[in-house]
Specification:
By secondary structure, the chain is an alpha+beta fold. It is built from 17 helices and 16 strands. The chain folds into three domains: about 200 residues, no CATH class; about 100 residues, no CATH class; about 110 residues, Sandwich (Immunoglobulin-like).
Amino acid sequence: MTASKEPDTSPAAPTPRAAAPASPDEVLVPLYAAQRKIYPRSVSGLFSQWRWGVVFLTQLVFYGLPWLDWGQRQAVLFDLTARRFYIFGLVLYPQDFIYLTGLLVISALSLFLFTAVAGRLWCGYACPQTVYTEIFMWIERKFEGDRSARLRRDGQPWSVEKAARKTGKQLLWIAVALWTGFSFVGYFTPIRGLGGQVLLWQISAWEIFWVFFYSFATYGNAGFMREQVCKYMCPYARFQSAMFDKDTLIVTYDSARGEPRGARSRKADPGPLGLGSCVDCDLCVQVCPTGIDIRKGLQYECIGCGACADVCDTVMDKMGYARGLVKYSTEHAVKLGWSQAQIVRHILRPRVLIYTSILVGVTLAMFISLGTRIPFKVDVVRDRAVMSRVADDGRIENLFRLQIMNATESAQPFRISVSGRPGIALASSGSGSVSVDSAQSRWVVLSVLAPNDAEHSEHSKHAGSQPIQFEIESLNGLGTLHEKSVFLMPR
């Protein structure tokens, strides 16, 4: 058996035309190289199964999460209009921005950790660009066939069959893109109401914009740009080398075993022929979604999807050779011939342990903070329209506005008191009790009175801005908050 190469009939890049003949010492360098379209071949194997498993999992979460209910509301909803963010049992306000910061820190540390351990796992399996490209390429194969059929059809003149296949593919691409954009907006507008608005064509201009914007991004990136996003637009490919080292698991080609490469019969013994295990079939290049040759070593375009390892294993099986000519390994392991146990031991190196410790610490701190947080918040604002005035009974009055935000799913009663100066109190006892509806906020105007110390010369030093403190206590036992402010005394 001889492994044959599949002809590449993709359009060739145009040759730049020189304005004048070049001398023998001159070298003509084009300012850019025309991009050749990549036709990835379908592949099956262990890594392909993992990749499709992640595709199903991520899309099940993305498309299904907006339709889940939690009590009487959508389980996950980022209500920007009301400035409330619902995540299952949590109700967060813009004042909880610290948790978003914590989530971003956890995401960054996770990326550093996974990259140090096993390279571009995120890019090859879970990145939205990879996920939607896989979906769109699957649709393309269903309509136009695998790589050879697409190459042949694109080289033929237009016909009814060719137009029908490409039109069907484009229509299904557009449908998937529109559903993706609709689902994305459904995280910010209740998705059931949004669906009704779409059916009645009562959707707002902003919602229309974001549905079509996200749909267009999905359609363009996954349908046309594909590997160009990974190679030229994504910054991760450029700085990944700073997180790699010789003990990072990457897709590698065992050149010591594979070289010199060459075609041969299945029954031929490569030893007497002076050949390595690589039969030079180029299938590893044909299945690569970014069009690189893994046999040239680690390249920044490699997204670590493992497609080349899957297809190489099938070739090794057909030839009767051992698997693993292309595999996940480390540069040190390939060079020194380490066993799997030695590879695992070297994975647990200092930088990995540091990343893991910091990640675990930040994650625990965030979840402990979420679990112990008091489920209501208070903002205190002095009424600047009235600085201070003398009340009828001779005391000094200041006006304050308190915003109480209830982050629970039931109405909550609160008691408000003030302290910080001798004799300071609210204008009436009734004004210190307030109730706030579930997941709502309420503004409360409070009149605070304090003795007029400025009438006595010995207390004139207390004139001006004086610190005070509001105490907001939940009558249902949720906790007590203390908020600082200032009380203005006339001079």
